[in-house]
Amino acid sequence: MLDELDMVSFGHLPFDLYVMDKWDPDSPLTKTQQFRALVHSWVRLGKKGRNEYPDGDDLSPEEIPPYVPQDLMSDEHRATDGQSATVLWIRTWYGRKNDPTSQSAANAGYNRLRSIVHDNDIDAGLDEDNFFENEDEFGSDSFTIPEGKTEFIDGVACGTPGSVPSYMITALMRKPDTLDGLSTRDWTEELYKNHPDPDMMQCLMVVVADRKACEEGWVLFLAVNHKGEVLPFRIRENADMATLLIYNYMDGQSLDENTRDPKKDIEYYMREGDGWAC
């Protein structure tokens, strides 16, 4: 349970101000649908656009329009700086719909994967807020993929460069300020100014436990920029080495440091052989 001193009242987070600015009380969308749409548009603003909504302060009740919801995020997630969660581990494969055998195999494979990364001390660097494993939220029927977009082929994630994965947006609904953080929101400002191509900078690591990961042990790693776009260079790493790749990123090594051509559209396997090999 949160201590009262840890509570972050509505109006403090940059996304709060965005909600106040954009919430439409007459929208035909449900509350959850409108929240999701705002998270997507918030991400798509990019760093410069989001910086137009600075960290807030205590607001009087009169300053908040009565139609603006203040409970879109839980108290626990509001109190946590999003910058601490720049690694999102998302399970997307739960087996075929209405196929108990497939679902059982998917669960067994995923449990094997989680057991391996647990044995490699992944829990020392990531907490439960970094893991997204709820089938109701991340199963194949849980979100709508934009028309004309393909995110999965037979359960295997595509990771198309320039795409904004629907499952990532679902995860960011917990902490919409994740791409920038809160208390250290401008931590990369100078880097963005000095980088020759800011849109190629990695701001987020998305680790995808798709069908290939659950069945073959090959985990997908996506680098995401400040606009929520998947960068061209993706990695498949085996289950045993997946934790190391995560820790390397947390220590400041972006995925593109594993290639000489970060703009090349490629899903690179870090090694040969069996994805379950130790």
From TrEMBL:
This is Uncharacterized protein. It comes from Penicillium flavigenum.
